[in-house]
Amino acid sequence: xxxxxxxxxxxxxxxxxxxxxxxxxxxxxxxxxxxxxVADNSQVNIFTTSFxxxxxxxxxxxxxxxxxxxxxxxxxxTSASLDVISSASRxxxxxxxxxxxKKNRGQFIVGLEQGLGDNTRFAxxxxxxxxxxxxxxxxxxxxxxxLFEKNLTLSLRGQYNMDIVGEIISDEQMLENNKEVFQxxxxxxxxxxxxxxxxxxxxxxxxxxxxxxxxxxxxMPNAINPVIVDYVTGNAPTERYRSAGWLExxxxxxxxxGSVIGHYRYYQDDWEIISHTFKFIFNxxxxxxxxxxxxxxxxxxxxxxxxxxxxxxxxxxxxxxLQAHDAHYAGANLSYYLGGFAKGNPxxxxxxxxxWDIMYFRYFDTLKYSSNVMETQIKFSx
Amino acid sequence: xxxxxxxxxxxxxLMGCAMVKPYEREKLADPIxxxxxxxxxxxxxxxxxxxxxxxxxxxxxxxGGCGCSK
Lengths: 382, 70
Prior knowledge:
By secondary structure, chain A is mainly beta. Chain A contains two helices and 18 strands. In chain A, a hairpin with a 2-residue loop joins strand 5 (120-131) and strand 6.
């Protein structure tokens, strides 16, 4: 285990050196380093490190780069059941293995944003994610238009994803399936007063191809001898049409030197899942340089029709994502702006808009899942 | 079609909103007015939610792929 960690740290160091070199050569306008740790009640842990930079290349042209590395760890399962307890299934071969299972994932996003005049921007992004048994690529185009002296901003985004969903059968065997996603999103931001603005939008998405989770197994009676139980992959429809609409209000509280933000999202799809999401954030300046932000999110959803009625139309699944449940996510973020260090030192001027964030959140749902989330980020704006 | 109608009606209604002048926008530009927090917070949270919840959307970031805790 120590060796794996050392290897991972070595990779991180190489990446850090590469990014710092890149930064030195480009003089990025913004550079951020982020670490994120999640540990859940089935002893799965995810450690994420990410770097992102933005650089103005020429007049209205900006280059964006984001690199993210994940490491997922899971202890040896003690139960024969692969999917019942949590979302943390893992390749079958590891059930009989020893020690902690580890999986790495690498992701990068590269983008170019081009201003077309004072009020229009066009951005193109390419996304690539690679791991042992999952590959994903996507192209994203976004058009943003500002209207009425920049009081109203409209945004239109199209996205196409092409995924390869793998299932590790043994050390040398992998089953692969394809999945495609088309998404169209429209959003707007409207200033309502000098202290309030509103954001709203709609998302339409079509998923097609292999839409089951290969590691979420279901106990089914054997076709020949019903006394024997087979563990088989769930069988979900090969298409899913999904829609969401959302509304968000941000209001500055002058008396408290803080702000309050409310967010609501409605979602439905043709698998008969309907969900509601409510989120509230309160931000408060504790000092000129420190912001404290408690946050609460409530989520509720209905079940997919083939989960509430197993076998309907020949489909079945035990994926917790498709079951009816409620979830809560609560915690707080602390941001420290580093501008104080720049006082009287012109060389440190870049710290004026640089910050350090730490946060802790807890997620828990009515399916007896819970996780702790910790994150820290340091961001430099030049 | 219903969304095109929704967008058109919303834009017409919003045209009736009072104009906020550029010099009045200091508070609107404050970092505490941004619901997504710092840059990557939203996308990392979305990844967690996508491993446990069956919905999507809501003005979130780009990306796709595996939820990584599978």
